[in-house]
Write a structure and sequence with these properties.
Layout lengths: L10 E4 L6 H14 L7 E4 L2 H11 L4 H9 L8 E2 L1 H5 L6 E2 L1 H10 L2 H12 L3 E4 L8
Parallel strand pairs: 1-2, 2-5
Antiparallel strand pairs: 3-4
Length: 135
């Protein structure tokens, strides 16, 4: 946490929600538009919340990215059904390579560097590894 605080830390926990993740992204954009969205000291998320969390952590200047992610993608941009593979012993009925490509597109080195800089300032981003695609 930031040292010398006189008020409680601002915390944000983002839940899962499958394709309903757009609700969380829209909520953040609305909060920004209202004008009182805080700079969060700790942001955490799981599943689609983990996809939103880094952008929420970095602040309102990332709202356009969230809008692009959640209004510009469809299910095929997240997974591809592979039912025969699932029936023949593969651990999943879906291929998550499209999700890996989506993550690679938006999670650039510059974005990771900004997160690291905020970490050096005492802020924390905690996301569940369940979002990470299998290799």
């Amino acid at each position: 946490m930031r040292s010398g605080r006189t008020k409680p830390p601002a915390l944000l926990a983002l839940s899962s929600g499958s394709d309903k993740g757009a609700f969380g992204a829209g909520y953040l954009a609305g909060w920004t538009a209202r004008g009182d969205r805080p700079s969060f000291d700790v942001v955490t998320g799981v599943s689609t919340g983990a996809l939103i969390a880094p952008f929420a952590f970095l602040g309102p200047d990332q709202d356009a990215t969230l809008r692009a992610i959640y209004t510009g993608i469809e299910a095929r941009d997240i997974y591809r059904l592979r039912p025969l593979r699932g029936l023949t012993g593969d651990p999943s009925f879906a291929d998550d390579k499209p999700l890996a490509r989506l993550i690679a597109r938006y999670f650039t080195q510059a974005l990771l560097d900004r997160i690291g800089q905020e970490h050096q300032q005492g802020r924390r981003l905690l996301i569940s590894p369940s979002l990470l695609p299998r290799s």
